[in-house]
Task: inverse folding
């Protein structure tokens, strides 16, 4: 395959092109020590003040582990994660370009549950009771005002609604629409340009909740118009509704928006209250593109124990719908057609970018956060090293490289020049590989990189020493080169493979920076392999072209 | 240019002296670790990355750089300093000795900063207790990972070479790790994350060196007439044949590291020192630990086998299994 020099050159150019493209398109991210980044302080949300200090501290420890995995799965991101006091966590990320995405990655709880879809009849029977409870609790007038506002304005925020319902201190509507000031509420209703007929109004007074629901398109669901979703959510959260709902049943929103005619709806699923399985049993998750429906999916695999539970449960419920619930929202609810083993997938809906699926797969792999988190402080941080240190590091690196050049060319002459060329290829490959993995460069990392160049030299040295030995033994030039490469091969292969094994083990069993070290080491080994055995060889072939078999070479 | 061409050094004959050197180094190192456990409560001087400590936020009235503050707090020994937000705020993450409160740490920092920048040029905004930035998991798992990698390396070498080669390589690598850790304990070098990376690099480097020498021994063993050669002479010849490569590679690596040491500044000094030490130990061990270990293992393990060989072939020279 690589018989001709030309095909060798094409291969080298192609590989260089890929690495160069990675470098160009991704760039090399500099670490917190070199360019600073973003600093976020997280706190366990505890609105009702029910958590003990000890519980919070314990939660933060678990949050620490989960977030560490989420933002630094391969250990190459070099973040700083630190517990502050007993209940807060500092997360510092180097040079973030998409701040929102980083924050959602940190905050998303990623709680995965599997629940069974229940017949909607159970809730239908309870609807009159729910409506009565709501009217009794909140008063007909405030509900009427609410109905107007939602239908007329359409843009009412959740906060405004809350003001309407519970007389909070929301500025515009808070005073005029509380249950006590019924006159003001009625006035507002009359003023509203989009007021509906009186009959409908009355009806919605009597059925504040059920009037929002339409028959579902799938068994076990209701459809709720998208514009009614905030109202319905708010009503659902009230104690009145929670008390009136049948026991063992929970209502969850579907994530997907479904169009019926001109209107858009979201499904409200009737599900079992307790999940039969949670994300704890998840072993692996992988983002993928489903070309058939042009959507992104996340395929997951359960642990052996989880798979057994899943299989037994699905076997008992063939024909039922299984809801995959992520952070309280139903991602999909496929029919169980057969006993399901340890694999499944979460559909993200048409048109979702693959990146979103990747993030979801990542947070699922890392596990759910044990608690809701609030960001209580957010700042940018400067580089932890002064410019002086950065300059010194740069200088040292350049001098180090020059030393390598001088030694190689001084000792091996023309062959040394060829080796330096191969090392240049090596450097581009390693940097391209790091860029492709989004690795973050820190000062120690750069020092390690320079050292790896020193070690990549080793393979070339092994080969050249062999060629010299063959020449000493009186072989002709060309066959000395061939023999030199052939004899050096076993040493290079064994030395590199052993190191690669070490790297793989460190990756498998290590966490954080140990993993990162393993990743960079592996890239270095593969690159040095290619550079010494293929690139140097090719350069030699070019050098030997036009020379007679017995012409002397400069080595 | 060519160094050590046709060198004929009698390395293996020096092995007993090397054993003494290694034993002394190990003894001092392990002694230092034990002393550390007794006097300091920890076998190594773990840095603030591992132990956690205090976080002190200081707001300056005038423009200062992180470099200025680092200078004021002891240069290379200074704790990590980060500019915080857009203002003249800095965060200093200082270690916390046992029995010292974070208020005392803040006071100490205040005294040092006052001496450098003048009192009243800054205010301490807050002081807080912070945890380790390195997860506990890392510390627990790193050791396990190294053990597993030893095991797999042993298996790989046993397949590609022979079992005794694998055992000798692991002995040498273990020796290097222990001597390095001993050195770190003796001089109480602060263990930060880069130090861990340096130790792992050393393991890789040492193994690489050892395998190159072993590869030559394997090759010479496969030559015609190898059975008749004295194993000591064969191993010596192998080391000498690879000597030009060993010296050149080590020199190049050391030269780069020297450049980093001299010009690289305070931040990477500890890291570089550990690496330089590691390269020296790794080169030493592939010649004076791994190769003699191979011989000793063969003597003990292969005795039965070579006796049998000797009796069947009536050869005076101890046989080397191929």
Result:
């Amino acid at each position: 395959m690589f018989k001709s020099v030309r095909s060798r050159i094409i291969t080298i150019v192609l590989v260089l092109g890929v690495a160069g493209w990675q470098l160009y398109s991704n760039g090399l991210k500099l670490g917190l020590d070199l360019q600073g980044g973003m600093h976020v302080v997280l706190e366990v949300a505890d609105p009702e003040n029910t958590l003990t200090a000890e519980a919070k501290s314990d939660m933060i420890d678990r949050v620490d582990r989960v977030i560490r995995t989420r933002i630094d799965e391969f250990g190459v991101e070099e973040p700083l994660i630190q517990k502050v006091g007993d209940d807060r966590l500092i997360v510092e990320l180097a040079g973030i370009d998409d701040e929102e995405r980083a924050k959602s990655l940190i905050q998303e709880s990623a709680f995965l549950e599997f629940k069974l879809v229940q017949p909607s009849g159970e809730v239908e029977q309870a609807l009159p009771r729910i409506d009565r409870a709501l009217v009794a609790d909140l008063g007909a007038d405030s509900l009427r005002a609410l109905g107007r506002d939602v239908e007329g304005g359409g843009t009412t925020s959740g906060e405004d609604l809350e003001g309407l319902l519970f007389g909070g201190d929301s500025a515009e509507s808070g005073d005029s629409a509380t249950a006590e000031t019924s006159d003001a509420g009625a006035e507002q209703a009359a003023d509203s340009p989009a007021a509906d007929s009186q009959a409908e109004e009355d009806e919605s007074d009597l059925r504040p909740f059920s009037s929002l629901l339409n028959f579902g398109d799938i068994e076990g669901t209701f459809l709720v118009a998208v514009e009614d979703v905030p109202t319905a959510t708010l009503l659902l959260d009230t104690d009145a509704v929670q008390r009136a709902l049948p026991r063992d049943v929970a209502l969850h929103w579907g994530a997907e928006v479904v169009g019926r005619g001109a209107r858009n709806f979201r499904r409200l699923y009737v599900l079992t209250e307790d999940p039969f399985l949670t994300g704890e049993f998840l072993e692996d998750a992988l983002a993928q593109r489903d070309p058939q429906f042009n959507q992104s999916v996340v395929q997951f695999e359960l642990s052996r124990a989880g798979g057994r539970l899943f299989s037994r449960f699905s076997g008992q419920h063939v024909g039922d719908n299984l809801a995959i619930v992520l952070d309280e929202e139903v991602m999909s609810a496929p029919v169980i057609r057969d006993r399901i083993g340890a694999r499944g997938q979460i559909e993200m809906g048409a048109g979702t970018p693959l990146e979103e699926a990747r993030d979801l797969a990542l947070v699922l792999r890392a596990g759910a956060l044990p608690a809701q988190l609030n960001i209580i402080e957010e700042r940018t941080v400067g580089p932890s090293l002064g410019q002086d240190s950065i300059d010194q590091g740069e200088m040292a690196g350049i001098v180090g490289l020059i030393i390598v050049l001088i030694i190689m060319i001084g000792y091996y002459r023309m062959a040394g020049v060829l080796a330096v060329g191969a090392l240049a290829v090596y450097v581009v490959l390693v940097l391209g590989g790091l860029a492709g993995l989004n690795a973050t460069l820190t000062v120690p990392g750069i020092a390690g990189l320079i050292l790896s160049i020193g070690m990549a030299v080793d393979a070339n040295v092994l080969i050249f020493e062999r060629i010299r030995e063959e020449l000493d033994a009186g072989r002709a030039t060309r066959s000395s080169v061939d023999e030199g490469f052939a004899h050096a091969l076993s040493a290079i292969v064994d030395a590199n493979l052993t190191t690669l094994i070490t790297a793989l083990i460190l990756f498998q069993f290590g966490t954080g920076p140990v993993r990162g070290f393993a990743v960079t080491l592996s890239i270095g080994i593969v690159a040095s392999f290619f550079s010494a055995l293929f690139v140097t060889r090719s350069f030699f072939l070019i050098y030997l072209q036009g020379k007679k078999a017995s012409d002397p070479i400069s080595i | 240019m060519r160094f050590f061409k046709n060198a004929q050094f009698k390395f293996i004959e020096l092995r007993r002296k090397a054993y003494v050197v290694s034993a002394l180094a190990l003894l001092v190192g392990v002694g230092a670790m034990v002393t550390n456990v007794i006097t300091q409560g920890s076998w190594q001087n773990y840095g603030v990355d591992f132990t956690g400590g205090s976080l002190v936020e200081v707001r300056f009235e005038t423009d200062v750089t992180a470099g200025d503050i680092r200078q004021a707090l002891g240069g290379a020994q200074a704790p990590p300093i980060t500019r915080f937000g857009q203002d003249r705020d800095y965060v200093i993450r200082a270690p916390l000795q046992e029995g010292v409160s974070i208020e005392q740490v803040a006071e100490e920092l205040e005294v040092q900063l006052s001496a450098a920048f003048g009192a009243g040029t800054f205010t301490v905004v807050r002081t807080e207790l912070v945890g380790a930035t390195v997860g506990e998991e890392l510390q627990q798992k790193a050791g396990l990972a190294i053990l597993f990698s030893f095991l797999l390396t042993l298996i790989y070498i046993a397949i590609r070479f022979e079992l005794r080669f694998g055992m000798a390589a692991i002995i040498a690598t273990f020796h290097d790790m222990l001597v390095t850790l001993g050195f770190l304990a003796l001089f109480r070098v602060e263990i930060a994350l880069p130090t861990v990376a340096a130790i792992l690099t050393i393991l890789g480097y040492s193994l690489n060196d050892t395998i190159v020498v072993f590869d030559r021994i394997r090759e010479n063993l496969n030559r015609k007439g190898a059975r008749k050669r004295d194993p000591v002479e064969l191993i010596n010849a192998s080391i000498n044949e690879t000597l030009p490569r060993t010296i050149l590679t080590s020199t190049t690596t050391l030269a780069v590291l020297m450049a980093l040491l001299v010009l690289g500044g305070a931040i990477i000094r500890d890291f570089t020192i550990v690496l330089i030490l590691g390269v020296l130990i790794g080169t030493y061990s592939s010649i004076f630990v791994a190769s003699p270990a191979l011989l000793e293992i063969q003597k003990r393990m292969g005795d039965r086998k070579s006796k049998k060989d000797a009796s069947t072939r009536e050869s005076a020279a101890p046989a080397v299994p191929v």
